[in-house]
Amino acid sequence: MKATAGELMDTQYDTLKPDLPLSEAVRAFRRASTKGRKIFGMMVTDDTGQLIGMLSMYDILLYMRPKHIHIWGDMDDIDVKGIMDMACEKAKSVRVGDIMTTEVVTTTPSSHILRVMDLMIKKHIRRLPVLENGQIRGIIYISDLFYDLLERLSYEGTTQ
Question: pTM of the entire structure?
Fold first, then answer.
């Protein structure tokens, strides 16, 4: 069974650049999702490969959401389609670096998976970059953590 972040992390991951248009980032999410898992967030790196941010579906949805939607009521009298079309057109000029999360929580390969679990739960994180000496080594998705837990729960090794 896996005990550390280094044993649990995925070393096959895609990254984005901060100057990439949001429309290209969305295409990158789709391409990455065709590899057997749905990807809803990616690390953003500079030209030297250093982690500088994360872009997630939440960042994109937050950007697309109209600022004052909470006062619109039930929106029966509003052309929501028109608003979404305008927001999508406006988003084409936005760059990844404009809306990415820059305060990224990370872990190290030697971190115990209970520490990883605690971080992800407390910080509401769905993906956690694994760094060693400032270099990206991999990423842990909350689903990996969950499926590792399912394996442990269903493991029929030694009896008590």
Answer: 0.85
